[in-house]
Amino acid sequence: MIVSGDASPPCTEVNVETFDIIYRYNPHETAIRPLPPDSNTALLRLEEGNKSFAALIDHVKDVSGIQHVIPVDPRDLGLVSGSPEMPKQRPFAAVLGCSDARVPVELIFNEGPNDLFVIRVAGNGLGTEVLGSLKYAVENLGVSLKLIVVLGHSGCGALTTAVDVFLNPPDYLALATKHSLRSILDRLLLVVQTSARKLLSAFGPDVVLRPGYRKALIEASIVTNSALAAYSIQQELGAGAPTELRTVYGVYLLETREVWVPRLGNVEAVGLAAAPHDLGGFIELGEAIVQSRRIASYIKLER
Ligand SMILES: [Zn+2]
Fold first, then answer.
1. How far apart are the CA of 20 and the centre of ligand 1, in A?
2. Measured in angstroms, how far is the CA atom of residue 71 from the centroid of ligand 1?
3. Residues 6 or more apart from 6 whose CB is under 8 A from it?
4. From ligand 1's centre to the CA of 226, what distance in Å?
């Protein structure tokens, strides 16, 4: 399978050269990517995969003819010589992401078929079916599964709606007959309220008057929402989860195609972070969010 970008017809906004992303099985290469043996290796593989994807798209602005190859094991496509059996499911990570079409999970992590157990729902919230799916994965795919990832993304429509309702509560009335939408929104409003209080304490009461306040609140809420989902998964799985299984989270930035989580001491950090373990973890995260250049840049916007 090939995903291609092509310079013809030319893009009017940026100069993009031809590039190919290829899923390839090469029978002459014996070293098909092995499954990560532990959560640390699984985490590094996803982080490296995302860096590789982000770098690829950066380069296609200047270099033509780039081919990016993702190796696949034919057994994961049911291509087993002489065997009619379906492939065995063996993902090394379960990913809870948003339904947003701009965040194709396997692609942005440089993964292929049978690598990831993906659950996508608007706002990457932890509803009953989502949690049930994750519990299924943990209980039935434990041999290969080493990592659970919650992946938010910048510009998330679900958080944007929640922020807009928070800033203008009468908008909530229009949702009176839309129970299914409210079920997504209601669990996000607490995250938005908490993030708003943090922005207020960090930047002062006038922050709400800044032109970029809404955008800052959306982006701060997106980070907090992902961290809260990761924390909740960790708590829900509790002692029943395999000890080597880790839960992490991150935010995919549509602007740079990198996964980002601000951390105290490294607020511009690229990669995934461990789920907060307690209230102290969330307080630290709140500090890191308001200290990050991303959030501050929105607060400083003049108009
Ligand atoms: Zn979204």
1. 27
2. 29
3. 18
4. 11
Summarize the confidence of residues 107-116 as an average pLDDT. Answer: 94
How crowded is residue 288: how many other Cβ atoms within 10 Å of its Cβ?
Answer: 21
Question: Structure pTM?
Answer: 0.90
Q: Report pLDDT digits (tens) over 259-269.
A: 999 998 887 78
The predicted structure's pLDDT at residue 6:
47
Centre of ligand 1 to C-alpha 8, Å, is 31
CA of 33 to the centre of ligand 1 (A): 30
**Would you say residue 18 has pLDDT above 90?**
no
pLDDT above 70 coverage of the chain, percent = 92
Side chain identity, residue 18: T
Look at residue 1 in the predicted model and tell me its pLDDT: 43
Mean pLDDT of 168-187: 90
Phi and psi, residue 20, nearest 5°: -130, 135
Look at the alpha carbons of 240, 243, 244, 248 in this order and tell me if their dihedral is positive or negative.
positive
Q: What string of H, E and C letters represents the secondary structure of the chain?
A: CEEEECCCCCCCCCCCCCEEEEEECCCCCCCCCCCCCCHHHHHHHHHHHHHHHHHHHHHCCCCCCEEEEEECCHHHHCCCCCCCCCCCCCCCEEEEECCCCCCCHHHHCCCCCCCEEEEECHHHCCCHHHHHHHHHHHHHCCCCCCEEEEEEECCCHHHHHHHHHHHCHHHHHHHCCCHHHHHHHHHHHHHHHHHHHHHHHHHCHHHHHCCCHHHHHHHHHHHHHHHHHHHHHHHHHHHHCCCCCEEEEEEECCCCCCEECCECCECCCECCEECCCCHHHHHHHHHHHHHCHHHHHHHCCCC
The distance from CA 95 to its chain's CA centroid, rounded to whole angstroms, is: 8
Residue type at 277 in one-letter notation: H
The pLDDT of residue 55 is above 70: yes
